[in-house]
Design a protein that fits this description.
The complex is a heterodimer of chains A (about 500) and B (about 575). Chain A is built from 20 helices and 2 strands. Chain A has about 500 residues and is mostly helical. In chain A, α3 packs antiparallel against α9 and α14 runs antiparallel to α16. Chain B has about 575 residues and is mainly α. In chain B, β1 and β2 form a beta hairpin. Chain B is globular. The chains are: A mainly alpha (about 500), B mainly alpha (about 575).
């Protein structure tokens, strides 16, 4: 058996099959469903682990076939996709555990977990896509599979949020499709290759390529929540906490950011993009988004809304790093792809815990919650400090490289953006931390569920504690081999080798 | 060996985590917590300066080591932390939040030690941030309104300071091409943006040092923190800002005369301002906080001298180091003394002992002969002499007179507290012993220092008449001025009573900040979040009235300050 061919396919299908079986299982078969879910997630993580080790030992993993004349569906592992795959697989496992605990006793769990698995399949597809059309197909699948999750609660508010979500993403998808088709009509086929594949059309199709770039970025920018295309994200936070966590950390928004990275590095190529003079406008847009998201986050009293606007801001760190055009900036952007995921998923898990255990949804309600839920709030504090960019959290490493990258290319204004963003992050995260630890609770806690000796169910508690430790570890051990930073630097070396 | 180096910072940090853990770990950790500074003290005592270790897998490649500067910093910092830790064990024995206190105490300690042994920029920044953020927990510990106000001011100023530091570090590292702290100052010296970097770092670390006008958090935070925390805040943590300056600024690398002049002027201004504002305080701990601003102003002068010429830095650095050694011990002793006074009432011998001890520490701060202060002031004088800064030479005795005034007032305040006739109190060794140790060190350190490290200062064990005289006349003059002023004030009781609100400038800023959110169209939920943290420093109406009152007394202070500045300029013109 050719493992190089089958492993990537097995990785994809591990969650696809899980999803299908979940739909086949009865609604009431909770235990079997949980076992199935966890097994699927563990298998996927194991497969990704094998591919990871294999890839760094020099093996290649690729599977492709022509599904239409001239159009190849290509699944491939490269240094960028292995990074994203690893993140998705490990966070999927944790989120599954979390979701099982979170949705205990709630209706429609079959639908939820079914689409949850499909959503992860789509994310994996996005991660492993080896060419633009494959990427696009999975990208659209992601939109479709996420919709049921966003509207899961079925309330008027979530239906409205779902509508907004579809409106934005469908529009984004259409714009992107136009870009993809146009690009294929020029180049014939567009495989992702480090350094880009469009050099030969530089002279003949220059202005067309600029327009296509705009279309692709606009399409991807919807999911990456670039201002002014971010409107759906704060609304979509009505989804259940595990969905928000996955949505904000690895699945939807990250797919957008990842797509932008792919387009710039592996389709256009960094140097070529830079020669088209589109990087500076993109950097400006990203900077604006960073500041705008943070400013909006200040005024949100609902914790999840505040986190959602924070995502708008933090995601653009990735775009900014990509647009900086310098090895250090690139490293900063790429490493933030991982770091933001770890930190944001922690924050959403914790917000979900507080909501699910004590029924608190607003910033002004969390006074003194640190004493009641110390581990949850410790994890939240670590995540928040990371978002501000305080060492030794992972967020600091991202900020450090972005800052040095900006200076390396002489773009001093970026330092101002980073610092303003850090200050704003401090201004909207620290009050929550302060309230939780230093203020006295105003009234007795309303306990929503029995929880035994721990501060809440173990399935809700374990994932945020683990992700917080990972976010801490990614910073403290940044210089260790195979840390996110080292992996990102590896990719950078590849990119700038030529 | 590596493990031992890391243990310096890791032991307090792990104990902090253990203190926050469930029983029985918590009890064990609380028992060990006061001794958390011991590994650092041992390292400071046994390591030869110049030793380094590298831990390539930590952060972005951690480098640790001790040069002479770090050695002295680590020694005195660990001593004061140790004393404060033992003191805290007694002081907070009945505090119901003592677990939380220990957590933040140990975390700040960990950061403080870490930044001293850090030899790479990232580790330094990490440890600095850890110390800064953890100290917030110490400031707000009591949870009172004034503690929360102090905490808010501290946090806002610290975060802004951090950002200045971060920007400065970005530029430095980008120029140096490496995170090695030992080449940082050299890189800044040749950087294109040298002035920008210097400005960023001066401001960023200046917040911690309490440099004028970034000092506002200090007089608010010191008095509200529990006494052992005030001792380490003033004795150790504000010195971290100075260490930042020493590590990053291009001192001794390149002569930057205009920066030198500016820094010297700012330092002297702080030295005088601290005295004036401190004299007008009623709370002894606030007075001590202003005294710290004043004393750090003198250390700032040493940094300024380092800017002026490349060859004056060796002496100026030695002076700064000795000054830190002196001030940490003396200020630690004074702050802990305030706590000891609280348990020394009643019994006569207790009162006498505590008053004697406080007087020794106060005399040291004023630079009286044979004390640590005399050694520090001599070193500073020598550095000023070498740099041809005769103006500084001229002003130093004046600052000593000022410090004498301040310390006389402090000792009298303490005496009044002791004599307010409470019942005799039990002898509490956990409070007394660390305090006595600090007082004893303040008196004896100038004899011990030559055994420990070889600094470029005049041998403090050699006593000459000239040295004794130059140490003693400002103290005598100060006492005479104090006596005269007291006499005049008693005689003419109609003389307006001056008062500076603690935190001085912050009151104005708060008043401005208060008016801002009102004029902005605010949405209902925008009262939370940003406005709360950045702009709203507690704005309720009764306070507003009080601020107005404060502002009217401010006018009188303003007149005093203006005349002081005029005198200052006049003296400057004499040069």
């Amino acid at each position: 058996m050719d493992w190089g061919f089958w492993l990537p396919l097995l990785t994809l299908s591990s969650s696809l099959i899980t999803g299908v079986f979940i739909f086949l299982l009865g609604e009431e078969r909770h235990l079997s469903r949980s076992i199935l879910n966890i097994t699927g997630a563990v298998i996927k993580l194991a497969l990704v682990g094998v591919m990871f080790v294999g890839y760094y030992r020099g093996r290649s993993y690729e599977a492709g076939w022509e599904f239409m004349p001239g159009l190849e569906l290509l699944i491939r592992v490269d240094s960028l996709s292995i990074l994203f795959t690893l993140l998705s697989a490990s966070l999927w496992l944790l989120t599954t555990i979390y979701a099982i605990g979170y949705l205990e006793d709630s209706p429609n769990r079959r639908r939820f977990f079914g689409f949850f698995s499909l959503c992860v399949t789509a994310t994996m597809g996005v991660a492993l896509a080896g060419n633009l059309i494959t990427f696009f197909i999975f990208y659209e699948l992601l939109t479709i599979t996420t919709y049921p999750l966003v509207v899961h609660r079925g309330t008027r508010e979530s239906i409205a949020a779902g509508r907004t979500y579809l409106l934005y993403t469908a529009f984004g998808g259409a714009v992107m499709l136009a870009g993809v088709v146009w690009l294929y009509s020029i180049a014939g086929t567009v495989d992702f290759e480090s350094g880009g594949v469009l050099w030969e059309f530089a002279d003949s199709h220059r202005s067309q390529l600029v327009v296509i770039f705009g279309l692709l970025i606009a399409g991807l920018g919807v999911k990456a929540a670039l201002v002014p295309l971010h409107g759906w994200l704060p609304q979509a936070m009505v989804a259940p906490a595990p969905v928000s966590a996955l949505l904000h950390a690895v699945a939807v928004v990250k797919a957008g950011a990842y797509g932008i990275v792919r387009v710039i590095y592996d389709v256009y190529g960094l140097e070529f993009t830079s020669s088209l003079n589109v990087l500076t406008p993109l950097a400006l847009l990203a900077s604006f988004t960073i500041i705008y998201g943070s400013v909006r986050a200040l005024n949100q009293d609902e914790i999840k809304r505040r986190l959602a606007f924070s995502t708008v801001s933090q995601l653009s760190y990735i775009v900014l790093g990509t647009a900086l055009f310098g090895p250090l900036g690139t490293a900063g952007g790429l490493v933030h792809l991982m770091h933001q995921g770890l930190m944001k998923i922690t924050l959403f898990f914790c917000a979900g815990n507080v909501a699910e255990t004590l029924g608190l949804h607003h910033v002004h309600e969390v006074n003194g919650v640190g004493r009641r839920m110390p581990l949850t709030m410790a994890a939240f504090t670590l995540g928040a400090l990371g978002m501000i960019g305080i060492p030794p959290m992972a967020g600091f490493i991202s900020k450090w490289y972005l800052g040095l990258g900006a200076l390396e290319t002489g773009q001093y204004w970026v330092i101002g953006v980073l610092i303003a963003s850090s200050l704003l992050n401090a201004a909207y995260f620290l009050p929550i931390v302060y309230r939780a630890w230093f203020m006295q609770p105003e009234h007795e806690w309303t306990e929503l569920h029995p929880h035994g000796r721990l501060e809440t169910q173990w399935m809700l508690l374990l994932p945020p504690v683990l992700t917080a430790m990972m976010a801490l570890g990614a910073g403290v051990l940044a210089a260790t081999p195979y840390s996110p930073l080292e992996l990102a630097l590896e990719i950078v070396e590849e990119l700038y080798q030529r | 060996m590596i493990a031992f180096w890391i243990a310096i910072a890791l032991v307090p940090a792990l104990l902090a985590v253990a203190v926050a853990s469930p029983q029985p770990l918590r009890s064990v950790a609380t028992l060990l917590a006061p001794w958390a500074a011991l590994p650092a003290l041992v390292l400071a005592l046994v390591t030869a300066s110049g030793s380094t270790v590298t831990v390539p897998w930590l952060l972005l490649g951690m480098q640790l080591g001790l040069d002479v500067t770090g050695q002295v910093f680590l020694l005195v910092t660990s001593i004061v932390w140790l004393a404060a830790g033992i003191f805290a064990r007694g002081y907070l024995a009945d505090d119901q939040h003592r677990g939380r206190f220990w957590f933040f105490f140990l975390m700040s300690m960990s950061g403080n030690f870490g930044l001293i042994i850090a030899l790479d920029v990232v580790t330094f920044y990490f440890a600095f941030a850890a110390m800064t953020f953890a100290a917030y927990g110490l400031v707000v510990h009591t949870g009172s309104d004034s503690a929360r106000r102090a905490g808010r001011t501290y946090m806002v100023m610290s975060v802004i300071g951090e950002m200045f530091i971060l920007a400065g570090m970005f530029l430095t590292v980008s120029e140096a091409g490496s995170i090695d702290l030992r080449i940082a100052s050299g890189a800044v010296a040749v950087a294109d943006d040298r002035n920008l970097i210097v400005a960023l770092l001066l401001v960023g670390f200046g917040v911690k040092v309490g440099a004028l006008p970034l000092h506002m958090w200090l007089p608010l935070a010191h008095p509200v923190a529990p006494t052992p925390a005030s001792a380490v805040l003033s004795g150790c943590m504000i010195k971290a800002g100075l260490l930042g300056w020493i590590r990053f600024l291009p001192l001794g690398e390149v002569a930057l005369e205009s920066w030198g002049g500016f820094v010297i002027a700012a330092g002297l201004l702080a030295a005088f301002f601290g005295v004036v504002a401190g004299l007008l305080q009623d709370d002894p701990k606030t007075l001590l906080a202003y005294s710290s601003i004043s004393q750090m102003g003198l250390v700032t002068v040493a940094v300024g001298i380092g800017f002026v010429g490349t060859d004056s830095w060796d002496l100026a650095l030695a002076a700064a180091i000795v000054y830190v050694l002196h001030h940490s011990l003396a200020k630690g002793a004074l702050f802990l003394g305030v706590g000891v006074v609280g348990v020394a009432k009643g019994s006569l011998w207790m009162r006498r002992t505590v008053l004697t001890g406080l007087t020794v520490a106060a005399l040291a701060l004023a630079g009286a002969p044979l004390t640590s202060g005399a050694m520090a002031k001599t070193a500073l004088k020598d550095a000023a002499g070498l740099a041809d800064a005769t103006f500084v030479d001229l002003m130093l005795p004046v600052t000593s007179i000022g410090t004498t005034l301040l310390m006389t007032r402090f000792v009298l305040q303490m005496r009044a507290q002791l004599n307010d006739g409470a019942a005799p109190q039990r002898f509490q060794p956990l409070l007394w012993l660390p305090w006595v140790a600090l007082v004893a060190l303040t008196g004896s350190i100038s004899w011990l220092l030559p055994w420990y490290v070889d600094l470029e200062i005049a041998d403090p064990t050699v006593i000459t008449m000239a040295k004794v005289w130059s140490g003693i006349w400002p103290v005598l003059a100060g006492l005479v001025v104090f006596g005269g002023a007291t006499f005049l004030l008693r005689r003419f009781s109609a003389f307006p009573r001056l008062h500076v609100p603690p935190g001085d400038l912050i009151v104005v800023i708060e008043a401005v900040a208060r008016s801002v959110p009102r004029s902005l169209p605010t949405r209902s939920d925008s009262q939370r979040g940003w406005t709360r943290l950045v702009m709203r420093f507690q704005f309720n109406r009764p306070r507003f009235v009080q601020v107005e009152n404060n502002l009217s007394t401010w006018r009188t202070v303003g007149v005093v300050m203006m005349s002081l500045i005029l005198v200052f300029l006049f003296l400057l013109g004499l040069q």
